[in-house]
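=== RUN LOG ===
request id: a7f3
mode: sequence -> structure
chains: 1
length: 96
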Amino acid sequence: MNYTRTDLSPFEMINLYEKKYTPVLLDSCDLKTKLGESYNCKTNTNLRNIFTEEIIFNERNKLIINAILNSNYKKIVVIYGKEHYKGIVKELENLK
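=== RESULT ===
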C-alpha cells in the first residue's frame, strides 16, 4: 500500500500567513486562552478569519489539488475534513 501525507504543519501555515500578510502578534487574551477552549478574543478576529479562509482552507486545498493532479496513480483516496471537499471538488471541476 502506498500513501502520501499531503498537508501543511501548523508551523508551515503560520509561516505562509506571515509571508503573505504580517507577523502574528499575540496579545494577553490570546495567551490566556488554552488549547481547546472557545476563542473569545476580540482583537484578532479579522486575523483569525483571514487565517482560516486563506491558509487553513485555500492553501491546504491548493496543496491537495496539486497532489491529485500530479499523482501517477489511477485510483486516489482523499481523507480530509468535510469542509475541504467543497472547495477541492469545485476547483477540480473548474479544470475540466
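=== NOTES ===
Helices lie at 10-20, 28-32, 45-69, 82-94.
The mean pLDDT is 88.
=== END ===
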